[in-house]
């Protein structure tokens, strides 16, 4: 990697603008991020760029430009079944909680959705999707042929971000050293290689929710819900209202989902805390084995929300009922077992 900043390249120009507290155009952001992911930027420049955006606050144009740069370089995957749903969180809530989005993906698929979950190792939480799935026995990087089989036969697959976005490795080292969420945490949910029609995206605060919802509307997603839970959770929560930005037809509509709409009991965020990926996987496994408790309730709420977004449930209560049936019938547990086997090439 270069040891000095390039002379007046796109990243240097972007840094000069950020240094004057200015915002970048779509083109400026696209070109600066392009320089980073093409491996032409120094680490000091990458760190300054990401920190400058964080301090200033990313704009819609900056996020759109970054997404364009990353999408231009990603390896796409054509799903044999459509439409496709993705469930993910941006991280950054600091809750160190069970990986709800991963569990919700499994339950949603067992309830009839086709889920292509796009994720990585932990960016800011205790365990990222891939960390947990490995401990649940799922191969996280089996190759496109196996992924296509998983989608075709099971209706679920995990797309390991580094395999589809190899260019992002040039920013990975800097990201690991920075103690805060960066622009790339926002890009991830917008760069699923299957380009899903439906998305449930969790973000930890209202500013990021607005940014994400606007980006999804601009990118033409069929339907999405950007959710910010109570206690700053980046998922649907059950200790109070979950703020929702509903994206459909290019428009964004604010909504609120309350615990009672799901027919589920209150759950405080502290009841979802886990120590490590193994602990998170164990909580998910127990929930899929029909253990009643906080993890099950929040998994049901998020799976219900995903089913509503995917058009498979008319509202939170119906979604929760369908999600509960998927667990209590054993479908979700069996799907996980079959997924683990097929991901390793075993029928």
UniProtKB/TrEMBL annotation:
Signal peptide: none annotated. One of its GO terms (molecular function) is magnesium ion binding. Anthranilate 1 binds at residues 89, 120. Pathway: Amino-acid biosynthesis; L-tryptophan biosynthesis; L-tryptophan from chorismate: step 2/5. SUPFAM superfamilies: Nucleoside phosphorylase/phosphoribosyltransferase catalytic domain (SSF52418), Nucleoside phosphorylase/phosphoribosyltransferase N-terminal domain (SSF47648). Homodimer. Catalyzes the transfer of the phosphoribosyl group of 5-phosphorylribose-1-pyrophosphate (PRPP) to anthranilate to yield N-(5'-phosphoribosyl)-anthranilate (PRA). This is Anthranilate phosphoribosyltransferase. It comes from Tautonia plasticadhaerens. The gene is trpD.
């Amino acid at each position: 990697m270069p040891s000095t900043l390039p002379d007046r390249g796109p990243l240097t120009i972007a840094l000069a603008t950020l240094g004057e507290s200015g915002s970048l155009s779509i083109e400026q952001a696209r070109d600066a991020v392009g320089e980073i992911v093409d491996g032409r930027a120094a680490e000091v420049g990458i760190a300054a760029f990401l920190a400058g955006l964080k301090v200033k606050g990313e704009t819609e144009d900056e996020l759109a430009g970054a997404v364009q740069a990353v999408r231009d370089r990603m390896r796409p995957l054509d799903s044999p079944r459509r439409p496709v749903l993705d469930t993910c969180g941006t991280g950054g809530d600091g809750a160190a909680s069970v990986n709800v989005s991963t569990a919700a993906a499994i339950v949603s698929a067992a309830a009839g959705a086709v889920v292509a979950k796009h994720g990585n190792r932990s960016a800011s939480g205790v365990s990222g999707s891939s960390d947990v799935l490995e401990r649940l026995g799922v191969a996280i990087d089996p190759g496109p042929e196996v992924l296509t089989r998983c989608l075709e036969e099971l209706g679920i697959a995990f797309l390991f971000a580094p395999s589809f976005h190899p260019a992002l490795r040039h920013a990975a080292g800097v990201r690991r050293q920075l103690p805060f969420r960066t622009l790339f945490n926002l890009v991830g949910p917008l760069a699923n290689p299957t380009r899903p029609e439906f998305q449930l995206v969790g973000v930890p605060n209202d500013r990021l929710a607005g940014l994400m919802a606007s980006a999804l509307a601009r990118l033409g997603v069929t339907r999405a819900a950007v959710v910010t839970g109570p206690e700053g959770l980046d998922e649907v929560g059950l200790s109070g209202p979950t703020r929702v930005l509903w994206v459909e037809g290019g428009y964004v509509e604010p909504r609120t989902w309350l615990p009672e709409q799901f027919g589920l009991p209150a759950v405080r965020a502290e009841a979802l805390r886990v120590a490590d990926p193994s602990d998170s996987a164990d909580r998910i496994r127990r929930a899929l084995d029909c253990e009643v408790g906080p993890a099950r309730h929040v998994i049901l709420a998020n799976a219900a929300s995903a089913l509503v977004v995917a058009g498979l449930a008319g509202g939170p209560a119906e979604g929760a009922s369908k999600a509960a049936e998927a667990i209590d019938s054993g479908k979700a547990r069996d799907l996980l077992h079959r997924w683990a086997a097929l991901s390793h090439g075993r029928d």
